[in-house]
Amino acid sequence: MQRRAFIRAAAAGLAGAPLLRLPSRRAPFRTVLIGTGWWGMNILRTALASRLVRVAGLCDVDRRHLDAAQTEIDALTGTRPAVYEDYRELLESERPDIAIVATPDHWHALCAIAAIRRGAHVYLEKPICHTLDEGKAILAAARDQDRVVQVGTHRRVSPHNMSAMRFLRSGSVGDIGMVRAFVHYGGGPGSVTPDSQPPEGLNWDLWCGPAPYRPFNARIHPRGFRQYLDYANGQLGDWGIHWLDQVLWWTEERFPHTVYSTGGRHVKADGTDAPDTQVATFSFASFTATWEHRLYAANRAERTNIGCYFYGTRGTLHLGWRDGWTFYPSRQADPEVHEAAELDAPDDQNIRALWDDFIRAINTGSRPVCDIDHGYRATAMCLLAMISLRTGRSLSWDGEQGRILGDVEAATMMRRPYREPWVYPEV
Ligand SMILES: NC(=O)c1ccc[n+]([C@@H]2O[C@H](COP(=O)([O-])OP(=O)(O)OC[C@H]3O[C@@H](n4cnc5c(N)ncnc54)[C@H](O)[C@@H]3O)[C@@H](O)[C@H]2O)c1
Predict the structure, then answer these.
(1) Does residue 201's CB lie within 6 angstroms of at least one atom of ligand 1?
(2) How far is residue 390's CA from residue 311's CA, in Å, rounded to a whole number?
(3) Which of 36, 333, 357, 404 sits at a 20 to 30 Å CA gap from 94?
(4) 44 C-alpha to ligand 1 centroid (Å)
């Protein structure tokens, strides 16, 4: 099958089929980590606990993170892994079996594609990319090279999310015509952090990489890049993907046909530029999904600040995070049904089960639970909403072809120029 035909077949729903030409691998897997910050080290610790990996190398553009990671891995394993500032040198020298990519979002595509092309299976953090065409290129590379790419949307392996899906599919909620996904946090306008010199040991030019260069600001790095649109896609790209992925997991439809978003920066005055208020609507053939976030208003008026409400003819199911899930039947006389969350320390997420599934997929040559196709489609929902927010228009989406229909300006926003010498990945 031609590569493009294969990608179309995968996009048409054959993503569960076994991989085609996967050579068998055996533990210990030579594993590298690209991005040794907060979440990357969480994943690597989990990987080490599985006793199936050997850390072959670490890569970061911030020497402080890299040195701390090397020291910790030495203490955990008795071996000091090699360290690199440039992921291309890491991949060239170490030729890993597995690469974990946990950089800020604007680097995901280049790092993941380079690792796949070097023959590595990839554990890639969400959102899978910063602009839509990058996502298509990652999906194409993964299929072309028959590599397993597991995306970090671990809610697909969290026990209470799995049982909620069984409950929804059992028909107990009735016919569902609407899903409302949301994350609301408190906080006020905040204050501006002045730009400064990058700290000693941080290669700020390389941190910015293909994205626009801007002066270093301690609010951006580490971890704060999420609220800067040059490097991420705000709360929708950071949190929205988790919950929109739950919507895609539940429905048998593969993508929305129309996306609209509105919002803005109504309260925040802290130098960030992502919307502090956003509403998005996603029209599917058989239901409507919405996304909402606010970054400044803790909300005690409603029962929860996070999750998805599935509205059905028999009642409403709230699928949450730390608060598990609860079904509120329509009939007053019927009892509520509740299931508590089972989450792993230290961050109340379930990356252990996701890592185990990643290894299972590598060993068996099958698709992982959070396959890149799922990650691409969930990320696409977020990025389409961001394009709609920028244009102020509703977008028609041909998810099968990966095209915005009838809007040339919006279609050009599916990619962006890269800063030299970086080259935008092509499908
Ligand atoms: N799945 C989840 O629930 C979850 C949770 C948290 C974070 N994440 C994702 O993990 C990623 C990292 O987030 P974080 O909070 O750990 O950020 P962080 O700032 O703590 O870590 C990112 C690290 O990447 C490094 N980096 C930047 N450019 C690099 C490059 N070219 N090569 C190597 N390293 C580079 C940075 O210096 C930093 O050390 C994000 O994409 C985020 O969305 C996912």
Answers:
(1) no
(2) 29
(3) 357
(4) 13
* Å from CA of 288 to ligand 1 middle: 32
Instruction: Give the bridge partners for 179, in sequence order.
Output: 289, 310
| DSSP strands (E only) in 276-369 | 277-283, 288-294, 306-312, 315-319, 325-329, 337-339
Burial class (CB in 10 A: 0-12, 13-18, 19+), 142: buried
Assess whether the C-beta atom of 245 lies below 6 angstroms from ligand 1: no
Taking the centre of ligand 1 as the mean of its atom positions, its distance from the CA of residue 2, in whole angstroms, is 35
Answer whether 87 contacts ligand 1 (Cβ < 6 A). yes
Give the per-residue pLDDT at 2. Answer: 39
Q: Which two tokens stand for residue 427?
A: 């499908």
Q: Is the CB of 126 under 6 A from ligand 1?
A: yes
How far is residue 53's CA from residue 226's CA, in Å, rounded to a whole number? 30
103 CB less than 6 Å from ligand 1? yes
Report the C-alpha gap between 62 and 155 in whole angstroms.
30
Sheet with 82-84: strands ordered across: 82-84, 53-59, 29-34, 98-101, 121-124, 149-151
Q: How far is the CA of 318 from the centre of ligand 1 (A)?
A: 29
**What does the pLDDT read at residue 5?**
39
- Provide the H-helix boundaries in 170-325: 204-208, 234-235, 241-250
| SS3 label, residue 9 | helix
With b for 16 or more beta-carbon neighbours within 10 A and e for fewer, the 325-346 pattern comes to bbbebeeeeeeeeebebebeee
* Residue 285: predicted pLDDT: 98
Domains belonging to the chain, first-starting first, are 3-17+25-156+349-371 (3.40.50.720), 159-347+380-412 (3.30.360.10)
Burial class from Cβ neighbours inside 10 Å (0-12, 13-18, 19+) for residue 275 reads buried
By 3-state DSSP, what share of the chain in percent is helix, strand and coil, each rounded to 5?
35, 20, 45
List average pLDDT for each run of 10 residues in the chain, which is 427 residues long. 39 47 76 98 97 97 98 97 98 98 99 98 98 98 97 98 98 98 95 98 98 98 98 98 98 98 98 98 98 90 92 98 98 97 92 97 96 98 98 98 98 98 96
